[in-house]
Predict the 3D structure of the following.
Amino acid sequence: MEEEKILAIDYLATTPVTAKDKRLKARRDPWMSRVLRYTLEGWPTTVDNELLPYWRRHEELSVREVCVLWCDRVIIPRVERPAIIAELHFGHPGMTKMKAVARSYLWWPGMDKNLEGTVRACERCQQRVKAPPRALLHPQLLPKRLWSRIHVDYAGSFMGRMFLVTVDAFSKWLDVYATQSATTEVTSEKRKTSFAIHGIPERLVSDNGTCFTSSEFRTFCESQGIIHTKSTPYHPSSNRLAERAVQTFKDGSRKLETRSLNETLQTFC
Ligand SMILES: [Zn+2]
């Protein structure tokens, strides 16, 4: 039961749904209160058209407190849907990501259509769709495990800061640190913090920025037992992954212009 509760709130920046809320809102949603009752007491052989999407799934429905679940997805009453859609849309993650998160945790009849409508009506999401498709990495270039090869680069300066952006080649996990400058000292310090959290990678890929080519940074990598690969335009192990991560971070940050620096970082990392 705990896991199911966590699933429902895991992604959300705020928690618009509590069990008490839901009890009140479920009562205000006549269809949902019938779904709740039928799930508890047994479904009739025929139902109104509005209930058909639930009826088709009735063997997979269950009740936890007042939440009706379809398998492990929480069914959201009509009145709560706008707030949930707004949360899913936060940061303009785009159609694919929004649907992926929603499909992992939530369901309601016509959910996909509602999400598609939101993205189509949003100018910023549309700009993202128009961007040229990203080139796929050759599968052989993918490392075999998490955090074994990381790509690093600096983004900025914007919002008055530089950002040390790290992406894990395996999971595409983004790790972003705001810094005052892009010196070797700062870079090594932030790397140490990152390694303390995620572990030490086997390989670190960077461009030829001074902070990465200095002898101090070389010593730092050697002391940690990390192979440092510097990309060149003609070298196959280029740092495209980090450049793309920087672009993703910059684009995303611009979309979050009303948020503070910390909130922006928390949204990404
Ligand atoms: Zn949008």
